[in-house]
Each structure stands twice: as structure tokens, then as C-alpha cells.
Amino acid sequence: MARRPWKASLLALLLCASLIGAARGSVGEDDDANASLVGGDGPTFAEEEDPERLKSLLNWAIEHSDPDKLKKLARDRGGGVEWSEGVSETVREVASGPSEADLMREALVVLADSRARAERERALDVLEDLVTQIDNAGDFLKLGGLAALLGEIRREGGEDEGSVRARAAVVLGTAASNNPEFQARALAQEPDLVRLLLGRVRVEPVAEAKEAAVFALSSVLRNSIPARNDFYRNDGPAAVASLLGDSSSSARLNKKLLALTADLLDLEAGFEIKSFSDLGFARRIKKVFEAGDDDAKEKALLVARQLASSVPGSERGLREAGLGAALEVLLAGTGGTKPADGLAELAESVLELIRSDRGGAAVETLREEL
Q1: With CB atoms 3.0 to 4.6 Å apart as the test, which of 50, 62, 98, 280 could cross-link to 102 if both were Cys?
Q2: Percent of the chain as helix, strand, coil, to the nearest 5
Q3: Which residues contact 165 (CB under 8 A, 6 or more apart)?
Q4: Cα–Cα separations (whole angstroms), residue 207 to 211, 251, 258
Q5: CA 331/CA 353 separation, integer angstroms
Q6: CA separation for the pair 323, 54 (Å, rounded)
Q7: pLDDT by residue (tens digit) across 178-234?
Q8: Could you tell me if 176 and 195 are in contact, meaning their C-beta atoms sit under 8 angstroms apart?
């Protein structure tokens, strides 16, 4: 398997170059070493700028960096100074560093043995990057990674441990994302995986960890019919409905729940999913629509349009929940604020469906719109 530098390797390059500059008596500006735990689908965690964190991350990064890039950057930062014996030794260590499978093993050892939260967080950051590769995600399962992640996700604790639970859920969601083989093998290893994730979605007290649990659940459900069957058997729609628009739910969580609902409605197109027209779902959609920003309004309307088009009788429920009246207020520009053209067009299409009492219209795929 071809090796590639992981996202923290740049940190190693910059720090090593800075060490060269310090040896020459030069002083440079600090480089921003903050990293995002996950892309647009997951939560972002700002890393603390403290010496111990940098030292620990450097130890991880230096084992998996590109020695040629390290040498070039040091020359650029050092003005062509002679390559020092100490840095040459560093480059030799980089070149002979462990494989990505070795790095995953080391990270899993940290999760198993370390009680220090910061160490477990750093190990999970490394794993999140490595499992983005499909082959690595498969190897991660062979190494017992799923059990380790579920152990962290179920770990009790307050706000501090919540950040660890969040990172663990993001690693799981990243590995499962658009990876049907991982999803199938994960369910084979842990048949109760969907139920366990739903449990965290229901009871997780820390906002970022709850959002991450929804991300992991969404990734496991996509492309897996057995996982979605488990979702319905374990009253998944009820869990989503109970959180959507709830006073304790963040705007970010509401958007993730709407995206999950739209995914499920799209994936089950042609089947009657009564659960999404029951449970006060229409009222929840209307509540998020009224309280959210334009992005939340758009996601709520995309779900409403899909629901009214694919589940007979849903348009009546949306109208009775007051969504039609809310859309009329939006389109009228009450308060002197007119909606953006795209949002107005979407609102008009949903309003037409709500007024028409006709269901079963063709539904276009909405994943990319969300």
C-alpha cells in the first residue's frame, strides 16, 4: 500500500524547519497548526496551542512525513544553510518510519492503555485521518478498531470526555462514509451497532458528541439496507423526531437531523414510510423552519417537499402544522425582508404541494442539494 503523509505532517515540517532557524539564531513567525477533525459532515475541534501538544503531535507526525519535503522546507526557511547532522538524523527517522497499519496499531494501544484524555484525543485525530482511505478502514476493523471506538463512544464523563466521544464517533463515521464493505463488516462484528449509536443520539449530553453520533449513524445507514432495517426496528424515526427542533438541539444538530431524514426518504423512495408522517414530524419541520437561518430553512423545506411528494397524506399534515401559513409569511416578506431567490422558489414549490393535497409525485434526489 502506498504511503502518504497525513494531515499533521505539515506540522512536523514546520516545526523541524523552525528548529533549524532557532539553531541559527533566527526568529520566525509561528505557523497555524490547528486542524479540522472532519469536513463539512462533522464537528470541528480547535486544538490547543501548548508545548506538550505540539511535542506529542510532532512525535506522531515525524514518523509519517515526507523527508524530501522536510528537507526542501528546511532549506527554504534556513536560507540554504548546510544540512545539520541532527536534522539529517531526523530525516533518516522519517524515512524509516512505521506503516499506516503500524500507526493505527499504536493509536489503538493508546486508546487501550492511556487514561489521559489529551493522549486519546490525539490518537483519535490520527485514526480519523488514516481511515479516510478505504484499505486502511478495512485494516482498522481487522485490528479491532471498532470495539475500541465503541468503548470510547460509550465512555461516561462530562464535557471533557464528551470531546473524546465526539472524536471517536467521527472516526467511525469517516471510516463508514461511502464504504459499503466497511458498513457490512462492522455490522457483522457488532450486530447492535445501529442500536448503540441511536442510544448515544438519544442520551448524549454534550452537543458536539451528539452531532458526531448523528454523523456516524448517517454514515452507517447510507448504502446499507440491513443497517436501515435496524434503524426502523429500533424506532430511529422517533429518536430523530424527538430531537428535531427541540430546545436542547443546536442549529448544527437540527441540520444534521434534516440531512439524515432527507437521505432516508430518498433511499426508501417508493416505499411507504409512515413513521416520518407520524410522531409530530411535520410540526418539528415547521419549528426548525421558523427558528433557523436560511440554510436551515432550505433543508427543512427540502425535507418537507420530499415528504409531501413521497408519503401520501403528509401534505395535509404539513398544512395542519402551520407550515403553509409560515411559507406565506416568508414569501410576503413580512418585516421588509424578502427571501433569496432560491429559497423563495423552493418555498413556492412546497406551498403548492401543501395546498394541492396530492402525494406520490416524482421525487428528485436531494443528497447533493443538502
Answers
A1: 98
A2: 70, 0, 30
A3: 152, 153, 155, 157, 200, 204, 206, 209, 212, 213
A4: 6, 10, 16
A5: 15
A6: 51
A7: 999 999 999 999 999 999 999 999 999 999 999 999 999 999 999 899 999 999 999
A8: no
